[in-house]
Every structure is written in C-alpha cells, then in structure tokens.
Design goal:
This protein has 327 residues and is of the alpha/beta class. The chain has twelve helices and 14 strands. It starts with a strand and ends in a 6-residue tail after the last helix. Bound molecules: ligand NAX.
Length: 327
C-alpha cells in the first residue's frame, strides 16, 4: 500500500464539498491505489463546524478503504499542514446588492490569508487548485503572496466549462461525449470565457466541419456554456454543486495523469494574447504528476482573438480591483 497523501479542502461543509469528499475518499480523484487523509477546513462558526462533523460521520459510515484519516478544523495552519493538495473550494458568496468589486475584495482577503499559510505549512510538493469564485483571480492572489511555492503550482478550475462545452457539442452533433476532443477553454471562469470551438474535434474531424452551423457555434453555443451557471441557479434554486465537484475530480485526475490534454487556468506567460500577470484558462498537457506545459501555437482566427481580448480585459480589471492586496 502507498503512503497516504494529505488533501486539504476548504468549504468542506458546503454543497460542493458534500459532492466532492466522497469521490476523493472513494479513489476517483487520485486512483484506486492511493490512500488519502482528508484535512477539512471550515469557517470558525458553530453551524458550519457542526455540519462538517455530520459530513465526517457520513464519510466514516462509508468505510472507504482508502480513507486513512480525517482532520476537521477551522485553523488554516492545521488544515493546510503538510498538505500535498490544497483544494480551495470555500469562498464568500455574492450577497444581495453586493457589487462585484466588493466580492473580489472580500474574497481577495481570504485568499491572501490562505495563500500565506499554504506557502508556510503545506508540503514541499504542494499543489493548489482553486474553485471558489472569482476562481482565476483568487488563484492569482494566493500565488502572488507565495514566497516558497512556485507560481506553476497554482491552478484554477475551468473544467466545468470544458465539460459543459463537450456535452453541448456532442448533443448538437448527436454523438457520444467520448467522440469529442480538444475542447479548450480560454480565459476567465465567467460568461466572458471563450470555448474554442474552432479547435474542437468530433471523431477526429474539425467540429466546425461536422456541425457546419457557424452561427450556432459563435452564438448560442458560447452563450449556453458561458451562462450555464446562471441557468442552473434559475432551475435548481441553488448553484451547480455535483457537476462542479465532478469537474474538480477531472481537473486533478487529469493533472496527475501524464499525457492528458485538458484546460486549466494557469499563470499566463503572454501566449494567445493574455496579459502575463493573469491566471487564464489555457490548453495544457500534463508532463508529470501535478506538472504541465501550456500547449503553444494553436491557431486563432479573428473571432477567437476578439473573444480572448474580451476575457483578458476582464481578468486584467479583476487584478486591478485587488491590486492593493498584492502589495
Ligand atoms: P456553499 O456556500 O454551499 O459552501 C461554501 C462553504 O465554504 C461554506 O460551508 C462556507 O462556510 C465555507 N467557507 C467560506 N469561507 C471560507 C473560508 N475562508 N475557509 C474555509 N471555508 C470557507 O458554496 P458551494 O456551492 O460549495 O460553492 C463554493 C464556491 O465554488 C463558490 O465560491 C462558488 O461560486 C464556486 N463555484 C465555482 C465553480 C467553478 O467552476 N470554478 C462552479 C461552481 C461554483 O459556483
């Protein structure tokens, strides 16, 4: 049996946490041979910590063979201590009448504090994956305050958008999702993100040729994927949770599987027209467990360049809105 790895999860008593923890403990994220110790972090609030206890009781009641231990805490030092993976799911939700700038700043403070603790106490090989919104900018903040861990260890999740785009293309072409490949998400996890249909393949052929309906690809398809989160809230009365947890399982599993080609938000190196200081969704290939290289040189047409410029502008504005936290 391998040595257990330590997986820290913030927001562990929230709705994504509830859909996520059981999948990690059952081996779906790190594989059927890898034991895990779950380090579950919640805010120091009686209700949240009580709910966390309940989740831990349910995890116990699954008798998962791979679950080697659990830590329940509201102290970041304890929760991130020696963690090999830090999954930052918890964030402050946008309240009624709250401006986006206030949301950015309030969450920015959380990610400055957590970023500093992770940098100090997590394992030397620690990887950080951010889900809590605004995910790209929160990730950029956590990485910006790090002095020990390099910036390429910090990724944010755009996999839910990739998965949403995959299914929309499959439905339109009337094929199984397994027929779809090379679906890349560029930019922010927000309605401005660009789902690069011109690179996508259906059974190895360009999606643009197979689907043919360019107006749909440029319009309804982008819109459906970009505004899917809002559509789910309108239908369910609560935001996406199981699909978000599933996307994080995919994000980490593909990031630990050598050769996988997928979309994650990483520090831009200026490729594809992104500002080098933002964390942008980009196509990557996993080169070693937890490491990746950005796939370079994919062709962009005028439509793609225009969409990328728009989502890049939003990321730059988000960075400017939290600039005072980065000093
Ligand atoms: P919930 O409100 O159900 O749960 C969040 C949990 O985080 C709560 O239990 C809260 O007590 C905890 N929390 C808040 N601040 C914390 C902190 N500083 N340290 C530790 N725990 C903290 O939200 P949920 O539906 O689980 O969503 C969590 C986050 O994911 C939100 O920010 C949400 O916007 C974001 N999402 C991101 C997605 C993505 O694709 N990147 C998609 C789904 C989701 O909307």
């Amino acid at each position: 049996m391998k040595q257990p790895i330590r997986v820290a999860v913030t927001g562990a008593a929230g709705q994504i946490g509830y859909a996520l923890l059981f999948r990690i403990a059952s081996g779906q994220m790190f594989g059927p041979e890898q034991p895990v110790i779950l380090q579950l972090i919640e805010i120091p609030n009686e209700k949240a910590l009580k709910a966390l206890e309940g989740v831990a009781m349910e995890l116990d009641d699954c008798a998962f063979p791979l679950l080697s231990g659990m830590v329940l805490t509201s102290k970041a030092e304890e929760g991130f201590g020696d963690a090999n993976w830090c999954l930052l799911v918890g964030a402050k939700p946008r309240g009624p009448g709250m401006e986006r700038a206030d949301l950015l700043k309030d969450n920015g403070k959380i990610f400055v504090a957590q970023g500093q603790v992770i940098d100090r106490v997590a394992a030397a090989d620690a990887r950080v994956a951010v889900v809590g919104n605004p995910a790209n900018t929160n990730c950029m903040i956590a990485a910006s305050v790090a002095r020990r861990l390099p910036a390429d260890r910090y990724t944010a999740m755009v996999r839910l958008d990739q998965n949403r785009a995959t299914t929309q293309l499959a439905k339109k072409a009337k094929v199984a999702t397994t027929a779809i490949s090379d679906v890349f998400i560029f930019g922010n996890h927000s309605p401005t993100m660009f789902s690069a249909f011109h690179l996508a393949k259906i059974n190895g052929k360009p999606a643009t040729t197979v689907i043919g309906h360019h107006e749909w690809l440029r319009g309804e398809f982008q819109e459906t994927v970009g505004k899917r989160g809002a559509a789910i809230i309108a239908a369910r009365g609560a935001s996406s949770a199981a699909s978000a947890a599933n996307a994080l399982v995919d994000h980490v599993r593909d990031l630990t599987t050598v050769g996988k080609v997928h979309s994650i938000a990483v520090k831009s190196n200026g490729d594809y027209g992104f500002d080098p200081n933002v964390w942008a969704g980009l196509p990557v290939k996993t080169t070693a467990p937890g490491s990746y290289e950005v796939i370079k040189g994919l062709g962009l047409d005028d439509f793609a360049r225009e969409k990328i410029a728009k989502t890049n502008k939003e990321l730059v504005e988000e960075r400017q809105a939290v600039a005072e936290l980065l000093k």
